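User: Reviewer 2 asked us to show a designed sequence for the structure in our supplementary figure. I'm pasting the structure tokens here. Could you produce the per-position amino acids so we can include them in the response letter?
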């Protein structure tokens, strides 16, 4: 790693070091890649005099760099990959653009695109695509990745359809697009987007063996190109959990920016679809507690094997039945003398939870990876209407139980399922503290976190989830210099006013990597 020459001093009336709940009028001084001092403003003079840059942040909140604990570069890349179809409003124009783009590729290469408008292209658009590209696979995603335009050659090669083009279905395509030369440049754009939102670390879901992109990560770290630290989690989709790969990756990736810590799996799916596993039947279908059975036998075998081998596991659950089932499994995993999980297993999403299961999870020091911004995807009445149809008012009281998670001793961390959402501390406060939906309506305020707790979830707790708390997550002397300056005093504002707040300045490893204050 290159030597960092900068000595920065950041002054603010709201330094939040994430070691406690109160901010103070003070400063953060960095030297090279480390934090040299955090203190009260009156102690800053000697550091200011020796600084290469002094940044007066006013009353803006200064805090540790943020960690997003559930991200998918593989999904974000699809929003930017290949031919841009966003200005094409008919199939003929789309085909013409794809043909021109294909001319820039090696002959026979798959053709990818983004920004496809499914509404404008008409019912015959797939026939036109087949005629233009009878042999070469072509796939172009909509801007929300909900569906895609694809030809018969792509269906045959990748074995998915526009009706099911989510990550767990498109894994065969990853082997074709992750090794592309342009992916390294796209990863720079990805990091810039994260840095602009105050994020300096992610827990990245890497499918199978990451289809060659692990080599790119290693090369970028060696070239000192990374501005976001990456803790990789393997998500098996093309084959079962590969412990041999996990051991090799754990040994291989041990640098300050790239590491490997364990495995991730889906269990159930959404309550809206009826595929979440519930403890009590759906109101919409009293014969069902889950429309599609969860592969619990497979999950149990893999979890216990990973736990024995010293890997951590995160399991994605949405229904209270799935959450309770996972807590049962975690209680059978290795624990230390105080009863805490040895390998820091986590549960992701947790749309609906039983309070008793949260108490059990908290007693084990379990990690709850929640989506604080999730309400931003819906209008209040739409979401409430769905919940009333599916599970009713009483169970709605157990939605997004972050308050109970926190109070039960669970380690609550922030994540986005990126690209489902892009990380935003302001939107996290707006939704996850204020209980607001996209249209401003509110619900379940009793289940929300306070603003200081939200900042801790995105900083100190996020670092713990990445097993990096000894070097990141708080502003303390000797820790790595990952620092975020927000655009406002987020600690003391009404959540309703916080939605647009993101980073004004971001420091990664002692380098300023995003700057609105310069």
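Assistant: Here is a per-position design you can include in the supplement:
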């Amino acid at each position: 790693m290159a030597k960092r020459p900068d000595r920065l001093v950041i002054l603010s009336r709201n330094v939040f070091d994430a070691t406690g709940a109160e901010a103070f009028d003070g400063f953060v001084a960095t030297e090279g890649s480390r934090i040299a001092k955090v203190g009260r403003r009156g102690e800053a003079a000697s550091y200011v005099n020796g600084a290469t840059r002094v940044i007066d942040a006013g009353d803006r909140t200064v805090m540790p760099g943020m960690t997003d604990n559930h991200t998918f570069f593989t999904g974000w890349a699809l929003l930017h990959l290949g031919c841009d179809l966003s200005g094409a409003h008919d199939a003929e124009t789309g085909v013409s653009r794809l043909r021109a783009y294909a001319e820039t590729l090696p002959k026979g290469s798959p053709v990818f695109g983004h920004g496809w408008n499914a509404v404008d292209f008409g019912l015959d658009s797939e026939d036109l695509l087949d005629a233009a590209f009878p042999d070469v696979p072509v796939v172009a995603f909509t801007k929300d990745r909900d569906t895609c335009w694809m030809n018969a050659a792509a269906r045959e090669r990748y074995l998915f359809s526009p009706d099911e083009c989510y990550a767990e279905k498109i894994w065969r395509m990853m082997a074709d697009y992750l090794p592309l030369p342009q992916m390294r440049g796209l990863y720079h754009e990805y990091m810039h987007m994260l840095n602009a939102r105050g994020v300096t670390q992610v827990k990245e879901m890497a499918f199978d063996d990451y289809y060659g992109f692990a080599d790119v990560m290693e090369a970028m770290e060696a070239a000192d190109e990374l501005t976001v630290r990456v803790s990789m989690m393997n998500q098996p989709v093309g084959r079962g959990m590969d412990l041999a790969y996990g051991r090799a990756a754990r040994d291989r990736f041990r640098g300050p920016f790239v590491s490997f810590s364990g495995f991730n799996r889906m269990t159930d799916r959404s309550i809206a679809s009826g595929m979440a596993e519930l403890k009590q039947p759906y109101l919409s279908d009293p014969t069902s507690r889950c429309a599609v059975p969860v592969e619990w036998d497979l999950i149990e075998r893999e979890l216990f094997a990973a736990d024995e081998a010293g890997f951590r596991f995160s399991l994605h659950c949405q229904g209270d039945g799935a959450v309770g089932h996972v807590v049962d499994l975690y209680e059978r995993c290795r624990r230390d003398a105080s009863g805490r999980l040895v390998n820091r297993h986590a549960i992701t999403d947790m749309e609906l939870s039983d309070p008793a299961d949260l108490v059990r999870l908290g007693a084990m020091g379990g990690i709850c990876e929640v989506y604080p911004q999730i309400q931003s995807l819906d209008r209040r009445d739409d979401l409430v209407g769905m919940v009333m149809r599916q599970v009713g008012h009483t169970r709605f009281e157990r939605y997004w139980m972050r308050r109970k998670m926190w109070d039960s001793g669970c380690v609550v961390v922030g994540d986005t399922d990126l690209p489902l959402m892009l990380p935003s501390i302001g939107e996290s406060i707006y939704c996850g503290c204020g209980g607001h939906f996209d249209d401003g309506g509110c619900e379940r305020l009793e289940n929300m976190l306070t603003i200081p707790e939200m900042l801790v979830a995105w900083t100190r707790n996020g670092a713990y989830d990445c097993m990096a708390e000894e070097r990141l997550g708080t502003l303390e002397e000797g820790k790595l210099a990952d620092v975020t300056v927000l655009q406002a005093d987020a600690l003391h504002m009404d959540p309703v006013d916080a939605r647009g707040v993101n980073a004004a300045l971001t420091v990664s490893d002692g380098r300023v990597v995003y700057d609105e204050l310069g």
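For the response letter, you might also mention the following. The chain has a mean pLDDT of 96. The first helix runs from residue 45 to 49.
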